[in-house]
Design a protein that fits this description.
This protein is mainly α. The chain has 20 helices and no strands.
């Protein structure tokens, strides 16, 4: 499982780096204002459906069923089930897409009520949303095909295909913009074009694996009924994070112009560790848990859950410490160029700190949710999710006035912490989560090491001040990140959390192979 975790994490990290380049281009060309806000809202809508219907509810219901059929009845029956599910998804999402295109002027005020104050921004957001909306059909189908590849334990292409989103997006911003009314139109067309490329790559990968997925006409067989039964409650249970982010966006449109942009770029930095660690853990853990539980290996399932918690917190906690200390310099170096001013970057850094506080909770939701889905339980997260949604909305309304654009990120972080607490409590009550003494000890020492590393970094930044000039600032930030990483590595070694000698030996063996 650790090898699969690293495979998915590596590809996801590369995708996030390219995504960072894409976001830097968006910031440089459009800054933080009405144009950027309109584009980000247009992208938020299909992206929310992607998370809910593709990577969220559908995937959470589909992967355990597919893995179980594959293990018990063989490839032929599993392939037939996947083709039928793909046909069902395409019919449903195409109908949803057509409705969205027709009624977009009525939908947009729901997710961006603040745009109604400015007629030009509202009209632009409607046009951009109509361009990006077909992406939801393409990317949700791609998520299903990726789920098939993950069920077959072919994690590389499933993770690598998502690079296309950022590669195509970068090409669109740089080379298509001159032929469009503005950069926002080019970026919007890049979103939809990337969906075509991603789905094509994944279907080709399935074909090469001898698992072609030509969709079948949907029929409501008992298995399709079971799939839908598990999927519907999972819309809330697995998509709480995305729905909360959408609530944040709704609230942000009611705040001063540019608030959506400031929150977005802060969230993009927060998504680097969240996307890499959360996606890697959730993607690899779900089929592993399903396989162990199908075989009646409950102790092995609990051990796999503990290992995932250990892995992600070992890397997430120091990331939180680093982000809290270096938020300002990070945002200035990465985004403080062109139309996105240094002052914009410093304002966005405040939102980044608020998001970073909830980073461990955001990641742990990805780790704990598969424990329910692997057991065929998509109902319990619904009840938790409804409460979390209500709490997040209440916190947003309470914090938006005093904290402005920092309020929604802080509300999401607080809601995510309660979400994790509820999920962990319920799993413990069902004997599905039981932290071993060794795991508890490692987690405590990891917290101490991260805290010491953060304190050391803070002291270092007080001695060596942030310089002027982009080149020097880049060197300064790189040196600080390296110093923090080295200090954390030394602490892990001193605490006995990592045996670097055996780790280096394993890497050398892999390289020789």
């Amino acid at each position: 499982m650790f090898r699969s975790f690293l495979t998915v994490g590596g590809w996801t990290m590369l995708s996030r780096i390219l995504g960072l380049v894409r976001d830097q281009l968006l910031a440089a060309f459009m800054g933080a204002g009405a144009l950027q806000d309109a584009y980000l809202v247009a992208f938020r809508l299909p992206n929310m459906f992607r998370r809910l219907f593709g990577e969220g509810a559908f995937n959470a219901a589909f992967v355990p069923l597919f893995s179980s059929i594959l293990a018990k009845e063989g490839e032929s029956e599993a392939r037939f089930f996947a083709r039928r599910a793909l046909g069902l998804m395409l019919v449903w999402l195409t109908a949803l897409c057509v409705l969205g295109e027709v009624f977009m002027p009525q939908i947009l005020p729901v997710i961006a009520p603040g745009f109604l104050r400015e007629g030009q921004q509202y009209a632009l957001a409607v046009s951009l949303s109509r361009i990006t909306f077909p992406y939801l059909v393409l990317i949700c189908a791609a998520a299903l095909v990726a789920g098939v590849l993950n069920g077959l334990h072919k994690f590389s292409m499933a993770a690598a295909a998502y690079l296309a989103f950022n590669v195509v997006g970068i090409i669109a911003i740089l080379f298509v913009s001159p032929y469009m009314p503005n950069v926002a139109y080019a970026a919007a067309w890049g979103v939809t074009a990337s969906g075509v490329v991603q789905l094509g790559l994944l279907l080709w990968s399935c074909h090469k694996a001898g698992f072609g997925l030509m969709p079948l006409v949907p029929k409501f067989t008992p298995r399709m009924h079971l799939l839908l039964k598990r999927m519907v409650p999972g819309l809330i249970g697995s998509g709480v994070g995305q729905i909360n982010l959408t609530i944040d966006t709704i609230i942000a449109t009611l705040l001063p112009s540019g608030s959506v942009s400031l929150m977005y770029f802060a969230d993009r930095i927060n998504q680097l560790p969240l996307g890499v660690l959360g996606a890697a853990a959730g993607t690899t853990l779900l089929p592993v848990l399903t396989r162990h539980l199908a075989a009646g290996e409950h102790e092995a399932a609990r051990a796999a859950q503990n290992r995932s918690i250990d892995y992600v917190l070992l890397l997430t906690l120091p990331a939180v410490a680093g982000l809290l200390v270096l938020a300002g310099p990070i945002m200035i170096v990465l985004f403080g160029h062109g139309s996105f001013t240094e002052q914009d970057a410093l304002l966005s850094a405040r939102a980044l700190c608020a998001y970073a506080l909830g980073l461990p909770a955001f990641v742990m939701v990805k780790v704990l949710s598969p424990a329910f889905f692997a057991r065929g339980d998509t109902r319990t997260p619904v009840y938790v999710g409804i409460g979390i949604l209500v709490l997040n909305l209440v916190l947003n309304l309470l914090l938006m006035k005093p904290l402005v654009y920092v309020g929604p990120p802080l509300a999401s972080s607080l809601a995510a912490c309660l979400n994790v607490a509820c999920l962990a409590f319920l799993l413990s009550r069902r004997n599905a989560l039981e932290l071993e003494a060794q795991t508890k000890r490692r987690l405590l020492l990891t917290c101490v090491a991260s805290g010491v590393m953060g304190g050391g970094l803070w002291a270092l930044t007080a001695v060596i001040t942030f310089p002027h000039g982009l080149f020097l600032r880049g060197l300064w930030l790189g040196a600080m990140v390296l110093a923090g990483a080295m200090l954390y590595a030394v602490l892990l070694h001193l605490f006995g959390l990592t045996d670097f000698a055996s780790l280096v030996a394993r890497v050398r063996r892999k390289l020789r192979k």
